[in-house]
């Protein structure tokens, strides 16, 4: 039993990643709905993955059995329809109904399409803000200079343009003043595959950033997206900002 519980998940990860990292046709494991292994059959190319492979991929991410770079390599090969399904499977994993998730995606797409052409979030700002714009994702090995995890977070309806929609604010602080003087250079990174997939699915990788001083940065993230990422504690622990990219 110990051998099965320890080795089989590793083989499943290898089966997924061998298909991504090596040319198609390389022999790997073919997953079934029961997650059994058949090493005599090839795993199809990522673009041909069915719900079976996609659901298993999401399960591996939620259980943190794959790394963020591994999840990213799969994500970048998925079709738009497959990415939608990944979001739905993530929603199911965290207890969000598919109907509610689809409504969130629809509403969020409407907000995204209404953004100014330069992708600047400045029009959503409040008095006292010195900048507001999307923070993009980048993968960094280890913590680059200036990397900061959130020191605190709180639930608020007042961090974006919709006061009727509660959001989470995550607060990042550094004692030196230049921390957020170049908001265009700020990037978010996570060492959690679930957090990565959640924010790529929910927000296309762009998180709503803003600040009231040069030695801080804040992220305004919707409750639905945070739920998808495993809750605010998981986000606080596994997401950080780094400057000067």
Brief descriptors of the model:
245 residues, alpha+beta, eight-stranded mixed sheet, two-stranded antiparallel sheet, 8 helices, 38% helix, 18% strand, disordered N terminus
In short:
The chain has 245 residues and is an alpha+beta fold.
Secondary structure blueprint with pairings:
Elements: H1 2-21, E1 30-31, E2 37-38, H2 51-62, H3 68-75, H4 80-93, H5 98-113, E3 131-137, E4 148-149, E5 152-156, E6 167-173, E7 187-190, H6 193-203, E8 207-211, E9 216-222, H7 223-228, H8 232-238, E10 239-242
Parallel strand pairs: 3-7
Antiparallel strand pairs: 1-2, 3-8, 4-10, 5-6, 6-9, 7-10, 8-9
Helix pairs in contact: 2-4, 3-6, 4-6
Rg is: 19 Å
Q: Main sheet, how many strands, which sense, barrel?
A: 8 strands, mixed
Number of E-state strands: 10
Uncertain residue ranges: 1-9, 20-40, 116-122
Q: Give the SSE string.
A: HEEHHHHEEEEEHEEHHE
The percentage helix is 25-40%
Class inferred from helices and paired strands: alpha+beta
Q: What is the tally of helical segments?
A: 8
Q: What's the overall geometry? A: globular
Lateral arrangement of strands in the main beta sheet: 4-10-7-3-8-9-6-5
Oligomer: single chain
The separation of the N and C termini measures 47 Å
Mean pLDDT: 80
* Fraction in beta strands: 15-25%
């Amino acid at each position: 039993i110990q051998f099965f519980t320890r080795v089989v998940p590793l083989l499943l990860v290898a089966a997924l990643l061998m298909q991504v990292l090596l040319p198609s046709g390389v022999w790997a494991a073919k997953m079934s709905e029961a997650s059994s292994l058949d090493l005599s059959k090839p795993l199809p190319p990522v673009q041909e993955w069915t719900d079976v492979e996609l659901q298993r991929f999401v399960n591996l991410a939620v259980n943190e059995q794959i790394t963020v770079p591994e999840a990213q390599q799969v994500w970048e090969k998925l079709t738009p329809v497959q990415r939608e399904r990944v979001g739905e499977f993530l929603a199911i994993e965290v207890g969000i109904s598919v109907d509610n998730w689809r409504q969130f995606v629809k509403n969020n797409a409407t907000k995204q399409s209404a953004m100014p052409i330069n992708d600047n979030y400045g029009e959503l700002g409040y008095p006292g803000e010195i900048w507001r714009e999307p923070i993009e994702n980048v993968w960094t090995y280890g913590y680059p200079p200036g990397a900061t995890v959130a020191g605190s977070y709180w639930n608020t309806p007042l961090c974006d343009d919709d006061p009727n929609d509660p959001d989470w604010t995550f607060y990042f602080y550094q004692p030196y003043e230049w921390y957020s003087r170049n908001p265009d250079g700020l990037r978010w990174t996570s060492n959690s595959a679930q957090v990565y997939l959640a924010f790529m699915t929910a927000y296309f990788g762009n998180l709503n950033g803003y600040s009231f001083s040069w030695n801080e940065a804040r992220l305004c993230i919707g409750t639905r997206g945070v739920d998808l990422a495993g809750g605010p504690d998981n986000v606080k622990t596994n997401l950080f900002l780094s400057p000067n990219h």
